[in-house]
From TrEMBL:
Gene3D superfamilies: lambda repressor-like DNA-binding domains. Residues 18-72 form the HTH cro/C1-type domain. It comes from the Bacteria. It comes from Streptomyces thermospinosisporus. This is Helix-turn-helix transcriptional regulator. Pfam families: DUF5753 (PF19054), HTH_31 (PF13560).
Length: 285
């Protein structure tokens, strides 16, 4: 991007403000859609930040909501303009989870539970290449190479010298034993996890097999939190053909409580490192 504006975050903030204006006016999304002769789904997508919004859309909505303060209208119009800029990830073409990348790029902290693999932000190139190829066997080599480069580029958020992303990862023990690539790839990958876990802003815990049934039994998810109070936390659940973003306070709170249970059931940081180190040595044999 030409500036530090994050288009994904701008869309979220703009959508939240438009929703607030609609609710102040006492109108439903259906009523607004009827006034503008558009679908209700369009209004919903504009408000949840999943759809690009034009300055014309903002102007029309402000007219419906009878916003008289021109400064507010101009501010919202500028946000709409900023939201149509492109993030760094757009240079790689059509990325299925581009909305998530935009959120991750602006997040202050990220909590992740991974039941199957090492989380993307901690992957080595060799591991990323093997996991992406294995997970997308019908994709072209060019497509998989692009996904690898995007994954590695995302890692700049945890290696930045200034304001790095605060990362907390709970890894299921299965992720350590699932051999991806080769024994050498796994040894180097686990050694990398150990190295990264010693950084002050990164915490890694392992959920051991002996725990049995646990709070994360339903699968992987992430919780993103932002420095700006105007940006609500988001729960991200990755899917095969589509992803799920949960922003309602009740949903976020439920997943947050689940994560606290996962942390409590996991080995502490030092015990987790010892387990990772032991398994890494086994791969070296």
């Amino acid at each position: 991007m030409a500036s530090n504006v994050n288009p994904t975050v701008r869309r979220r903030r703009l959508g939240q403000e438009l929703r607030r204006l609609r609710e102040l006016k006492g109108m439903t999304a259906e009523e607004v859609a009827e006034r503008l002769l558009v679908s209700q789904s369009k209004i919903s997508r504009l408000e949840n930040g999943r759809r690009s919004i034009s300055q014309r859309d903002v102007r029309d909505l402000c007219n419906v909501y009878e916003v008289e303060d021109q400064r507010i209208v101009e501010s919202l119009m500028q946000m709409a303009k900023d939201s149509r800029q492109q993030g760094w990830w757009h240079a790689f073409g059509d990325i299925p989870y581009s909305v998530y990348i935009g959120l991750e790029t602006d997040a202050e902290s990220l909590r992740v539970y991974e039941p199957q693999i090492i989380t993307g932000l901690l992957q080595t190139r060799a591991y990323a290449e093997a996991i992406i190829q294995g997970g997308s066997p019908e994709a072209s080599e060019q497509e998989n190479d692009k996904r690898v480069e995007v994954r590695l580029r995302r890692q700049s958020r945890i290696t930045a010298e200034k304001d790095p992303l605060r990362l907390w990862v709970v890894l299921d023990e299965a992720a350590l034993h699932r051999m991806v690539g080769s024994r050498q790839v796994m040894r180097e990958q686990l050694e990398h996890v150990l190295e990264m876990s010693r950084l002050p802003h990164i915490t890694v815990q392992v959920l051991p097999f002996e725990v049995g049934a646990h709070a994360g039994i339903n699968g992987q998810y992430s919780i993103l939190e932002f420095a700006d109070a105007a940006d609500s936390s988001v729960v991200y659940i990755e899917g095969v053909t589509s992803d799920l973003y949960l922003e309602k306070p009740h949903d976020v709170q439920k997943y947050t409580v689940m994560y606290e249970h996962l942390r409590a059931q996991s080995l502490n940081v030092e015990a987790s490192r010892r387990l990772v180190e032991r398994i890494a040595k086994e791969y070296a044999r």
